[in-house]
Amino acid sequence: MSPPAGTTPAGQEPADDIEYADPGLARERTELSWTRTAIAFAALGAALLKYRPVVGLPVLVLSAVVWRLGQLPGTAGAGDVRDRRLLLITVTTVGVSLVALVLSFLGPGIVSLR
Amino acid sequence: MTDQPGGKNPATTSTDDDGTEPDARYTFANERTFLAWSRTSLALIVGGLAIAQLLPPFPGIPWGRHVIGTPLILLGCAVSVISYLEWKASQRALRHGEPLPRSRLPQILAIAITVIGLIAAGLALLSAVGVP
């Protein structure tokens, strides 16, 4: 038997209010987002590792660093820490883009290395 | 010097900003948006590199791959930097209880991808016409 409209069974929160009642879900989703970003770095590193190990290995290490950064507590009030973490992601991405730019122009293409 | 109206706890405020710490959920949401844009920029960089290195050269247009790949890599770099600046601006607005600034990244991305797509289509047509 369903509860009357406007009420919920004892011990249960309405589905729409779970996020409001438990902000930890936001934290968890953010950690998952960090994990996805780390996986993106790892995928790039693995792809580069096959053809350019010197470049791929540092990117793989960076992916581990990104994953670890996502595990660090990002509590409210840790604005400076958060700023530095996100700045590190930006600097890393800019660095990767510069390396990619150099790789795209220098040396033989990957196709010709096969 | 930071003046905290209403006797706010200094521990909940950033040292370089005189605003107050917003609801943690908004801060996390802002962070997730930045991370999503970072992944987009990584995808653009990988795509540009793959086009420049993996794509066979256009017949008769050997530089064609770079015309497509290089802008994608530069776009990825720009998206990364702009997303950080927008994260900072949004965080500042949240701390001061102001309206969130409007993001320009969707517009930039849409225009840039459209232009690069048109260039790619032009190159494909040129190479097809130029093949004897």
What do these coordinates show?
The complex is a heterodimer of chains A (114) and B (132). Chain A has 114 residues and is mainly alpha-helical. In chain A, 72% of the residues lie in helices and 0% in strands. Chain A has five helices and no strands. The radius of gyration of chain A is 22 Å and the shape is elongated. The model of chain A is unreliable at 1-11 (pLDDT under 50). In chain B, helix 1 (24-54) packs antiparallel against helix 2 and helix 2 (64-96) packs antiparallel against helix 3. Chain B has a domain at 39-130. Chain B has three helices and no strands. Mean pLDDT of chain B is 85; it is low at 1-15. The termini of chain B are far apart.
Kindly summarize this structure in a few lines.
With 114 residues, chain A is an all-alpha fold. In chain A, 72% of the residues lie in helices and 0% in strands. Chain A has helices at residues 18-21, 24-51, 53-71, 79-105, 110-113.
Number of alpha- plus pi-helical segments of chain B:
3
Compute the gyration radius of chain A: what is it?
A: 22 Å
The residue ranges of chain B in which pLDDT falls below 50 over 5 or more consecutive positions are: 1-15
Task: Report how far the terminal alpha carbons of chain A are from each other.
Answer: 67 Å
Secondary structure layout:
The complex is a heterodimer of chains A (114) and B (132).
Chain A: H1 18-21, H2 24-51, H3 53-71, H4 79-105, H5 110-113
Helix pairs in contact in A: 2-3, 3-4
Chain B: H1 24-54, H2 64-96, H3 105-130
Helix pairs in contact in B: 1-2, 2-3
Key traits:
heterodimer, A: 114 residues, mainly alpha, 5 helices, 72% helix, elongated, disordered N terminus, B: 132 residues
